[in-house]
Write a structure and sequence with these properties.
mainly alpha; three-stranded antiparallel beta sheet; single chain
Length: about 1700
Amino acid sequence: MTSPEQKGLVPFTRESLELMKQHIAKKHSEDQRDLKPNTDLEVGKELPFVYGNLSPGMVLEPLEDVDPYYKNKNTFMVLNKSRTIFRFSATWCTLSPFNSARRTTIKILVHPFFRLFILISVLIDCIFMSMTEMPKWGPAIQNILLGIYTFEILVKLIARGIWAEPFYFFGDPWNWLDFSVTLFEHITRYLLLGSNTIIFSISRNLRILKIIPLNQGLKSFTGILIHCLKKLTGVISLTLFFLTVFSLIGMGLFMGNLKHKCLRWPQENETSTLHNRTENPYYMRETENFYYLEGERYALLCGNRTDAGQCPEGYVCVKAGTNPDYGFTNFDTFGWALLALFRLMTQDYPEALYHQILYASGKVYMIFFVVISFWFAFYIASLFLGILAMSYEEEKRKAAEKTKKIEPKFQQTSKELQEGDKAVETKTTQIEMKKRSPTSVITSLNMLDDATAAIRHEEESEKSRKRCPLCWQRFAKTFLIWNCSPCWLKWKEFIHMIIMDPFTDLVLTICIILNICFLALECYPMSEETNNVLSIGNLIFIGIFTAEMILKIIAMHPYGYFQVGWNIFDSLIVFHGLAELYLANIHGVALFRTFRVLRIFKLGKYWPTFKILMQILNISLVALKDLVLLLFTFTFFSAVVGLKLFGMSYEACVCNIDKDCRLPRWHMHDFFHSYLNVFRILCGEWIETLWDCFKIAGQFSCISFYMMVILIGNLLIIYLFLALVSSFSSYNPATTEENEEAKNLQRAVAKIQKRINYVISKILCKKQNVSKETMDRVNAVYAKENISDHTLSELSNTQEFLKDKEKSSSTEKNTMTENESQSLIPSPSASETVPIASGESDIENLDNKEVQSKSGDGNSKEKVKQSSSSECSTVDIAISEEEEMVYEREKPKHLKNGYRRRSSPGQLSRASKRGRIWQNIRKTCCKIVENSCFKCFIGLVTLLSTGALAFEDIYIDQRKTIKILLEYADMIFTYIFILEMLLKWMAYGFKAYFTNGWYKLDFMVVLVFCLSLIGKSREEFKPLTSIKFLRALRVLSQFERMKVVVRALITTTLPALNVFLVCLLIWLAFSIMGVHLFAGKFYECIDPTSGERFPISEVMNKSQCESLVFNESMPWENAKLNFDNVGNSFLSLLQVATFNGWITIMNSAVDSIGVNRQPNFEENIYMYCYFINFIIIGLFLPLSMLIGVIIANFNTHKIKQGGSNIFVTVKQKKQSHALRRLLCEESQKTIRHPGNKFQGFVFDLVTSEVFNAIIMALICFQAITIMIQSDEQSKNMNIALCWINLVLIILYTGECVLKLIAFHCNYFTIGWNIFDFMVVIFSVIELVLPITVGYYLVSPSIMELIRLSRIIHILRPGKGPKVFHDLLLPLMLSLPALLNISLLIFLVMFVYAIFGMYNFAYVKKEAGINDVSNFETFGSSMLCLFQVTIFAGWDGMLNAIFNSKWSDCDPDKINPGTQVRGDCGNPFVGIIYFVSYILISWLIIVNMYIVVVMEFLNIVSKKKAKTLSEDDFRKFFQVWKRFDPDRTQYIDSSRLSDFAAALDPPLFMAKPNKGQLVAMDLPMAAGDRIHCLDILLALTKRVMGKDVRMEKMISEMESGFVLANPFKITYEPITTTLKRKQEAVSATIIQRAYKSYRLRQNDKNTSDIHMIDDDKEVQATTEKAYFDKAEEKSTIQSQI
């Protein structure tokens, strides 16, 4: 069991110290240099029991280190009672281990109570830190705590010693933190006498982080996250690069544009005074002269472009005033532009910035936001997710490997313990079960289907019994196991039989569902009758659940009942219901009613999916408890830091935020609000509170604090999220174990179905008996005509046989044919290898040999007889209506065939001629529909018909010509699609056509066309025209890329439907809870003049509001989003989940007081906890469940397809391989060195690395010149920048000229050179523009951006950082799949945009509907849907659509240019519209993230795998070209070392590598040359090692090389590298010996001393050479 080193625990004595010093002095045994610390013996872990028991004399005493790694490290270890390992240094800058003072401090330090005492002190300090006002006795407590921390540091200093190495005090970074904080606190408190209190408070807050080293789990997770940060350095650098580039682009496009406002301008009839005022510069600064929209805080922005915002009459667009959002939103300087881009990247309130830019600059700049939101934000988030997922998987793999290493050590011991425990447990269980009721045990065993489950349950119950003390076991056996009398046992057996019956579980399940429905029916307002019904229902359900509990207790004993977790949960619900009835009339316990929602989760007992998901969640949270605690510690720390840093500033500068000098809702003046603010930042909404922070504190401190919270907090959240997703990705519904209740439910349903089938079969039997005589007559006729061998059942069997044959052939090929891809879900049964439908062709051509052989087969006859043997069988053969039609149609054919002998030859020829004509017609139709030109034509018509929908906007009535053309086009499209449908009917037949999902979709679209034409022709059918938007769905069936994506989405989403229902159940619980808490409480009394709420001092309730009459009664209005019923609750929770409009909902909830009472500001502030719990429990956890299950389905179907991407077509897979080759090829084509000396000099200059570095420095310098620009910079700055730009243009032109001289025409063979040449041309044009036409055509900022575009050279493979290329590779490889998914997103957006134009085009413009975002035109509708796709601003649009009352809109409003009246919306349609689009777009975007992240993990796994790919071989030959430019296939052996060092990993061999290359024993040809294939094979063997795939790969490489190089020069190797090395060594030895011999001959007259010295030298040299040779041989053998 134990290793030789494990000799037990030995006290550390002076002899041990001396022995350790001797070992260190000798530095013996090289093996110990390779030793690594044992992970099981790390500091902070418990000593394994394999080292024996811990005697009392060894506790808190110095012991010799049991880890061999520390034997010679001058360390000893100490154990406490918990066997926790502590390690200390024995010498150097510390007291002796045998010093009494040090031994005492060590005992104090390692004692568990000392750590607990420090932890309690830190927690008490945290409580004081969170206080806004310190109590009087607070300073005394702080002094005591400071003394405790000082004492702790002194103890650590004495125990560990003062040095900065491991196991010393300053060797631990956490000790540095403690020491610096304590020292700073002493200085500020006693030396500076209270000055710099803010810095003092902030420094004290760092002590909260002291919790981390006190918990080993927190400390380890902190180390893991720091390791993750190191891996994220590349992504962070790439993110900063892209942020910088996009910020500079934003500066060039939008600098100063956000200051453009609509200024009131005097008209001709106004007085001259106003004209004089406009000349005054102060006039343009007065805010009242700007134009404001109703309810808006900032002036309306405008632009000078035609597609920008326009000013109303009397106003002109000028650049005046400040920027919006208090001046903090702009692109005037690089800093503000960077903040705006970071805001767009994190998707925080992007719709506001989006509208501002489009108003000020034009709608064309939507492209900028699409690139930022759809590509940049998505790509960066995917990279972060990919790297963190990779890090988490690495940690899991390390843990698994560690477990595998530990397992063999304790396997034998665990087996012995298990065998002993099993014997004892089995015996005890049998005795206990015999003591109990035998009848109940027999009954329960009969109910079980799985014996192993029963044994497992007994073992668990026995283990739980062993945990209890003996007295409690006796109490339980005496009072909780009721075996009183035989009568009682019979009664109990009867109750057990009833309560365990399957129908009982079915009834209970129905009761639970009805109770859920009753809970969901509660609403406001609610009539008394409904309230009484719900109250009576509640009493009934409480009674049912109470009876269930009592009966189960009787049947199972109290002891057995409370052993089951679900029974405990049921009893808690019963006790809650009874307590609620008892406390019903007591005031203030209304909140107690909200716990009724727990009854919903009773359904989980009968739902295996819910059970397994909760088990996975429980296991995951237990494993990740330290990570959750770390996240909570960080949020608490951030909240306290925010309180100390900005709390006083909020109170002192509150008037800068609010004109009434009242604190806003989101501030940091107290701890609770500070914590809420941090939580809001972590939810992704931070920009608005940052603006407030800017106004009350400095920008530097605010940005530093917010960036810390955003970056570190999101790192923790994402890592936790990925850990949960990884746990749920192991969910497999096929392996879900069902409990007894679920099985009983299935048994009950099966019995009911059996009864129903029996009744139906009896009814069918009676009908069959009535029509028996008719059927007999028909059968007699067919018997006479001798056609019994061609019955419909046999023909159907023939078809099934043929289909089975096709299935087997298709599965053997394992490829998807073109016709197979036509179905929505790929299924072999839907394969169509023959264009004509097999069913119809077989019936019509009975002379077919296969049909005849099958129909004449005896097996088929037996099958027919078996199927028709029982007239009243409960399993009948279902015959479709189509088959019956075919059957009736075939009767005359059979009769005709029966009388064939008596028919004339003319009749036979006519019949066969008709069949031949019909067959030719169908073949012709099949050729037409299968023709590629026909398919292209239909695809083009489909695109035209879809694109025509975009022209039907609100201006269509004003464009008469376009309207007429569209009407004719609709008719033409309809006729074309009808003709196509008829041709496919003729070619494929009805059965084949309507069994294909895509053809069904086409048929539905044809119906839509027909209905829309009918709607146009008749006025009463005009509403049918609104379904025209469904025409666009035909695009799905016409393009293979979209088919693939739809199929993949269905296959990954449908299996997750059960999990989606579990998530919906959680939301239902929160929605019902919201109804109980907030129903009817969101009403408020609004002042119609100001639009604000009356203060509670003026209006307290509804009656007072209605009694206030000025000109009219005050409106008592409800919030548009409320919790008055479950439906509204779901919608409100959806807005909270998407973080759109959630602040308004939370404000209403926090201000609510009661029903019919006026809300007050933050009257019910702790209602924030409801929304926090929903975001954590109702959003974060269900989201991880859903995504984890989708990933599991994605991986499953990916494996089924051979590991290829499921979102790409077969053609795209080939293209992706070509793209991979293109990315791995050399970035620059090899250009021969010119022969001319001058040209050669220029060539060497432009191809040198120094020249390229200078050019990159110039590009970066140009970027810096753009960074230092600002909107209102001085003239001197403008002049300086102009000169700098001129110099840069000259330098770029010079570079271009030099490369043209060096490369000549080859310059234009490289794409990057063409790009640089175009930049130079545009730069030269920029110099000419001011002289000719000025800057009217192109602004100078655009020309600067064109020059800046050269900065993308940093991303060029081989030129920029390699880490950038590695990070861009996953995006490029997943590009085909992303394009396919993007096409589907665009189609969904197109369909919803057309639907929005038809339904919301005339909605009143307010909230989210404005001049930019509306549904009036197709472009504006796409702008709206772009916002919804990124989950931004859809709450405002829905708020505008909610205007359906007379008070909110005008239903009779006249819309100019159209016959449509009114500007009201349709709330019901709007809710369905936005909710459905959000769910569909979320599903598609999640799959986009999965594609990129999985591609990233795939690349990483391939790199780590010990294998070689095609890319590695391609890179090998790219490097070979540089060393063999003449393509001789050989390389000189002297260049082999350089060649191996120039390769890319994993073939790369770093220098010095000559010894390794010699050991490869490479064959050498004449001239010391080595062939490339020999080198490649040797390097492959080196990488692959003893892999079983190596021989196959080598043979494939050899054959592939022969095929690729048919003219390979054959050669006979004359030697090898190893032999040549041996020959060289031998030659060297001989030469030295001969040289020494000649020296001895020439120096005979010299002294004997010199001769002896020479001989010794020669001998030493020879021995050295000999040992070198021996060492080389051993190295070679080890390599082999």
